[in-house]
Amino acid sequence: MRGQTFTICIRCGKARIFSKSWKDHGEFGKGTVIFHEESRCPDKDCQTVVDAKFQEMRDRRALTEERKRIVILERSLAKKSKLATT
């Protein structure tokens, strides 16, 4: 651990506790080493609510990205079919 930072829970305002740390070498195992630190709220019920809220946000973001991909695909297919008919 390089040095623990002090963070506050976004929901209840308590000081968060250090949970774990790990290092990652990036996407292909080469290059810059990235150090990760995970902290959690000392109140388990609060952390459960925060985790659920973040999962909801990730799900919503994934759904939005999927919708964007579908719109782009439909536009490209419409463009191709329009070119084929002319």
Description:
- With 86 residues, the chain is an alpha+beta fold.
- It has one domain (17-85).
- It is built from one helix and two strands.
- The protein has one helix spanning 44-85; strands spanning 17-24, 34-40.
- The longest helix has 42 residues, at 44-85.
Topology of helices and strands:
Layout: E1 17-24, E2 34-40, H1 44-85
Antiparallel strand pairs: 1-2
- N-to-C order of helices and strands: EEH
Shape: elongated
How many individual helices?
1
Largest sheet report: 2 strands, antiparallel
Give the helix proportion (percent range): 40-55%
Low-confidence stretches: none
Count of domains: 1
Structural class: alpha+beta
Strand order of the largest sheet: 1-2
Rounded Rg? 21 Å
Average pLDDT value? 88
Task: Tell me how many strands there are.
Answer: 2
Distance between the termini: 64 Å
**What percentage of amino acids are in beta strands?**
15-25%
What can be said about this structure in brief?
It is built from one helix and two strands.
Question: What are the salient characteristics of this protein?
Answer:
two-stranded antiparallel ribbon, 86 residues, 2 strands, alpha+beta, 49% helix, single chain
